[in-house]
Amino acid sequence: MSAVTAGPFAVDAVVLDIEGTVGSLAHVQEVLFPYARERLAHWTAEHWDDPRHAGIRREIREATGDPALGAAAAAAVLGDWSDQDLKTAPLKAVQALIWADGYADGSLHGHVYPEVPGVLADWQQAGIARYVYSSGALAAQRDWFAHSDLGDLSALLDGYFDLTTAGGKREPDSYRRIAAAVGAEGRSVLFLSDVDAELDAAAAAGWRTAGVRRAGDPRGTAVGAHPTVDSLHLLRVTSTR
Ligand SMILES: CSCCC(=O)C(=O)COP(=O)(O)O
Ligand SMILES: [Mg+2]
């Protein structure tokens, strides 16, 4: 393991990506996504006409341009989006609903790297706020941390942002929205991600940035030009206060 550190970062808040940052890319790609993919057809057959999911239905119909799209066609569309790993809000909403069953019956857990709870607790103790920003839906993010393989980590987090509340992760305006929502100046927020385009967007909004690249990640050890660590305990983060 490398011991390359990043920082110092004097900040009021840290915002963390999930996939590839606090949890393993392989877990998302090889466990979570297939779990939902295998159940998409059944989910749409069961729930397509459910009034509680009218928003999902409307968004998928809008995206396809077919106001009469039925359950079977919707399942095919969702399957295509999943196969392409497209970060679309309705796919993320359906995945979250399917995963919720797996978390509830104990067949799914959110993967969290071993140092994460301790580092979050240290930042909490130092008065640094801790938020999550993922393409995964808010419900999926909450479930990930509430049902992590290291226990319920919800108390270590102050809030969650996703595509519906912040916008796309490669758009600087999304980071401006989050900063406004948490009441922080961009320069006082540190964003952690495994994707350089996301860090570039955060930097364009004036945020501090650090890449996280876990050991064995096939994408290599650098995340663009951003200072990069392979474990959160190598970040030197202090409070501005
Ligand atoms: C618990 S969210 C599951 C991960 C997911 O759906 C996803 O698309 C990963 O996106 P991220 O922004 O966390 O890299
Ligand atoms: Mg990620």
From TrEMBL:
Binds 1 Mg(2+) ion per subunit. Its cofactor is Mg(2+). InterPro entries: Enolase-ppase_E1 (IPR023943), HAD-like_sf (IPR036412), HAD_sf (IPR023214). Its EC number is 3.1.3.77. GO terms for molecular function: 2,3-diketo-5-methylthiopentyl-1-phosphate enolase activity; 2-hydroxy-3-keto-5-methylthiopentenyl-1-phosphate phosphatase activity; acireductone synthase activity; magnesium ion binding. It holds the Pfam family Hydrolase. One of its GO terms (biological process) is L-methionine salvage from methylthioadenosine. The keyword Magnesium applies. It catalyses: 5-methylsulfanyl-2,3-dioxopentyl phosphate + H2O = 1,2-dihydroxy-5-(methylsulfanyl)pent-1-en-3-one + phosphate. Keywords: Amino-acid biosynthesis, Hydrolase, Magnesium, Metal-binding, Methionine biosynthesis. It is an enzyme of class 3 (hydrolase). Pathway: Amino-acid biosynthesis; L-methionine biosynthesis via salvage pathway; L-methionine from S-methyl-5-thio-alpha-D-ribose 1-phosphate: step 3/6; Amino-acid biosynthesis; L-methionine biosynthesis via salvage pathway; L-methionine from S-methyl-5-thio-alpha-D-ribose 1-phosphate: step 4/6. NCBIfam families: enolase-ppase. Belongs to the HAD-like hydrolase superfamily. MasA/MtnC family. HAMAP family: Salvage_MtnC (MF_01681). Monomer. Bifunctional enzyme that catalyzes the enolization of 2,3-diketo-5-methylthiopentyl-1-phosphate (DK-MTP-1-P) into the intermediate 2-hydroxy-3-keto-5-methylthiopentenyl-1-phosphate (HK-MTPenyl-1-P), which is then dephosphorylated to form the acireductone 1,2-dihydroxy-3-keto-5-methylthiopentene (DHK-MTPene). This is Enolase-phosphatase E1. The lineage of its organism: Bacteria, Bacillati, Actinomycetota, Actinomycetes, Kitasatosporales. The gene is mtnC.
